[in-house]
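Moderator note: this is an archived Q&A kept for reference. The question asked for a predicted structure of one protein chain; the sequence and the answer are reproduced below.
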Amino acid sequence: MNRWHLQISGTNLAYTVRINDIVIFSDRWQTSRSDGCPINQWLVSGMNRLQVNLGVGLSKDSAEAESACLVQVKEIALDNPSAPENIAAEINLVFKDGELSLPFDRTVEFPVPDLDPSRWEQGDKFDPENPDLSGLVDFLAAIQNQMEAKDIEGIVGTMRIKSEEMARAFGMPIEERLKDQREFFEELFQISDWGMLPFEPQKEPQKIFTQIEGEGRLLKVTDQVGGPILKSKEFEDGSNFGLRFHLSRHKDRWEVAR
């Protein structure tokens, strides 16, 4: 099992980077940034797409004369640490003001062989103009109830498809991943002041925000500012636990895909 990694460095540009129509990085403010993350869980068998959209940021500084963006998809052979990284796809741009018309889009394809299909690839396609979201609020409310009730069996069951597919994506034994998931929620629910903030999807800023991704087969669900749609109460250190979702739909059934 190889590890696939997305690496980006950008200067003086706003950008959105997608893998197979799924947003991985997005920065509207035109800040300098260097970041990276694994992307095994977003890949499909066959040809995959790296998509980069560049634009003028909200904090454009006219004193900056040069902009740059380097995005790479790297394949890392875990069974041979001494092997060089394979750059499977790359988009590399350096230009001065006026040399490139913004917004600018570029797509590069790269092959990934022999992957089992993910459940979301077989899900229903959402209509981009009028997606059918019936039952979505009830599905999220059911997860909220599982979290409030500290229902280990319920929440592990709800997350099972995601857990199994994440295990396969990264070459981890499925039972080990499920065990880790169970232990995570058991530890979380043992916090003395554990509790969830109310789920009030009709109120700002918690109102549900949805974005269709994954060639129409995934629904990204957050609050209005891109934060978790379900959140715990604050812990003693001021932090909290939140759940963001990529969901798929199979007829009348919603599933947590990622």
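Archived answer notes: The two ends are 20 Å apart (CA to CA).
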